[in-house]
Amino acid sequence: RNYYAEISQALTNGKKLLAILIDPDKFIEVEAAAYLKKIPKETTHIFVGGSTVEKFKTEKTVKAIKTETNLPVILFPGDYSQITETADALLFLSLLSGRNPEYLIEQQVKSVEKLKHSKLEIIPTAYILIDGGKECAVQRVSGTKPIPQSQVETIVNTALAGEFSGKKLIYLEAGSGAIFPVSEEIIAEVKKAISIPLVVGGGIRSFEQQEKAYKAGADMIVMGTQFEN
Ligand code: 1GP
Asked: Which residues take part in binding Mg(2+) (predicted)?
């Protein structure tokens, strides 16, 4: 199974994807079955990751999820220590909106020991943090600033710089728990410019917001906070 091929196929077929994000810090393994019953039936992927995760917690979380669902489990790590072989694939993130070398390349180098003999599918991802109306965990942990939503051209150029450097996914992130999600204008402009799949997350809570993001051009939407409660 090739998880990236499945995602890009969706782009060709116009099928919309929905990833539910599980933060291992907030996840109780024995409740995995009950939790997974409550996620929307349209869910196509489970993302697992967070900004601060205690040791082995990601692994335990992935194992618990995998006993309850056959959906692909993709790591979305805030730190290389969260990488675990128990998942199916890994978003190999570079925080391209920021200028902190730790999240542009250092974390990636640190993760190599874990990855070089691993079967995890690696998906190079351009991760672009956009202002969602409040300080988010990515901002706090990475010590970088999000790009204001008014700077559409900078956002588009950052996404294109990602594609030109060989990233296979563009992820527009307004931050978990954002007050407002990435605007339709930004999604549409980025979508127009790139030829790789577009992932959008942060602050999407309602069905209407989901529909707007899909219509604007998101191939995959990521929702976390909405299902944590
Ligand atoms: C965060 O994009 C995801 O990385 C999801 O954000 O928790 O606001 O849904 P929410």
From this structure: 23, 51
